[in-house]
Amino acid sequence: MSVYLLVVCLALLPQGGEASDPPGCMSPDAVRVAEEALEQINQDRKIGYIWSLNRLYDLSHTPEQGKDGSLYKLTIDVMETKCHITSGKPWKQCEVRNIGNVPVYGECQVSAYVHTQVKLQSYSCTIREVPATAVVDTCPDCPTAENLNEPIVKETANLCLQRFNEESRLANYFTLENITKASSQWVVGPSYFVEFTIVETVCSRETDVSELSRCTPMDCQFAHRGFCSGSHVAREDQFEIRNPGGKRDGLIQDKKPVEVKCEIYEPQASSVEAQAHAKAGSVHTEHQQHNHTHLHPHEHLHSDSPSPDITLSVSQNLGNVVNQPASPRASPAGSSCPGPRRHNLGLRNLRL
Hints:
By secondary structure, this protein is α+β, with helices and mostly antiparallel strands. 18% of the residues lie in helices and 32% in strands. The N and C termini lie far apart (56 Å). This is Fetuin-B-like.
């Protein structure tokens, strides 16, 4: 009898050394799917900041009948980085916001098909700022979020843009596109911090100051865009008045301290066209001629549309993102789930 039972037990064991259990949150394969799916989510989104993977919270894995691939359903926890979507950077190159940078966190429900590669099918994400009370409770002196519509926030963004335009050596002036984040804290006075996107205008640096109010954003695929972060220490004394181009309009009694740093990104059309030039040996056919000349990094002239054989990558609108408070969620069902967190903000009342 004992010999018979042993034979039966051996017959029930997985054959060929294959694992019978589906991958769990600690599985390198599952983590790879989560990482690559998040990269595709960031590429698909049009606004906001690039997200970083905090942990794989839950997953299910279903082999596709008649196919070699599998369908993964993932729940991933994400954290906002300091990189704006405009930058197009891989999320692994971006720094997660710490407690002093108005951190944002959330979770995504993700569907991805996996064969030899990971292909994102859909996603639905919910994100929110860490409450100011949670930040202050841990770090009383840290900046806290400001309403983006506050006049002082708009003033700070404009002052920062003015300084950028004044000090920039780029060919054209830039104009404000969107204010994306704002915060404040008390330093030697009320200090305001802003982040915003900018876009190249049709006005060159030779444009007369009186015409700057008429400078419209460049409406073409070769327009440069940028992302800026700046600060402004507000003081009650009269300060230097500047026009949008950064030129001085008035006398200074007491200048408001303004700092700004901007990254300017090469247009995708330029990068794609450069690749096309290299592939074709930099030789255009007659119908491809155009005047698109780079003078030096981030400066160019153009008069016609790009070459007709240029194809730009376009997001597919595979998912949605909403901002809303955190709500209770079900315990993970996957084995070894949730996986470990990769980040720790050190908050007392919020585990992030």
